[in-house]
Amino acid sequence: MDTFVEDAKIFKALCDPKRLAILQELRAGEKCACVLQQPLDLTQSGLSYHMKILCDSGLVISRQEGKWMHYRLSLSGRDYAMERLRVLTTPNTTESTGCSCSK
Fold first, then answer.
1. Nearest C-alpha neighbor of 78 from the set 31, 26, 35
2. Which of 10, 80, 86, 102 is the most buried (most CB within 10 A)?
3. Which CA distances in Å does 41 have to 6, 22, 49, 88?
4. Mean pLDDT of 9-32
5. Residue 94 — very low, low, confident or very high, per pLDDT cuts 50/70/90?
6. pLDDT over threshold 90, residue 14
């Protein structure tokens, strides 16, 4: 069940247009929060909210430099997310699919 909690964090991070736009911005490399705010039309608190979700999911890594946070994509987080999606969407033909309601 703990795996599903972690999976939910990943998929929550991917189900918001603003967070997808943030991921797109980070594809160019590490960026300071101050650089991300303007093109995404986010306040500092709005960006912080979205970044917490992205960091909790493991898709983004943060580091502090002075008073500013810097963010970058996590390759290991991406690989984990892709593997979980593959596992969750691959049919498991070894489990019984027999219905017992008609007996």
1. 26
2. 10
3. 29, 11, 14, 34
4. 97
5. confident
6. yes
- Alpha-carbon distances of 71 from 21, 24, 85, 94, rounded to whole Å: 14, 12, 24, 42
Distance (Å) of CA 52 to CA 48, 49, 69, 100: 6, 5, 11, 44
pTM of the predicted model as reported, rounded to 2 decimal places: 0.88
| Residue 95 per-residue DSSP state | S
Q: How far apart are the first and last CA of the chain?
A: 30
Residue 100 — very low, low, confident or very high, per pLDDT cuts 50/70/90?
confident
CB 81 within 8 A of CB 56: no
Q: How many whole angstroms separate alpha carbon 89 and alpha carbon 35?
A: 36
Q: How far is CA 56 from CA 13, 33, 39, 85, in A?
A: 9, 17, 23, 17
